[in-house]
Amino acid sequence: NGQVWGQALTNNSAYGTRRVTLRFPLAYEKDVPAVAARLREFLENDPRVQKSPPPSVSTASLTDAGVELLVEAWAGSSDAGALRTDLMQAAMSALYAPKARKNAAE
Length: 106
Prior knowledge:
Layout: H1 2-6, E1 17-27, H2 32-45, E2 56-62, E3 66-76, H3 80-96
Antiparallel strand pairs: 1-3, 2-3
């Protein structure tokens, strides 16, 4: 409570844009670069994501269980909630997408 009483508060809803921030834990067995690439592709192709500042997908931390990806993107305030929901769906699709096979003999 000390921070609430002792510091100025910022009303983020007063601004026209919002940052959408999500963290995705991935097991080491997952193809982390492929998942990150699919998330970047989603962000680059979604018209709700602002181009400046550019969206980012980065490694936030390494744990005993795996890698944690940090995804950040800016969107209009009215789009932020829906973008967050769709981004989570895109992450699930990237995580559970079948791996592309190099050739039919595999």
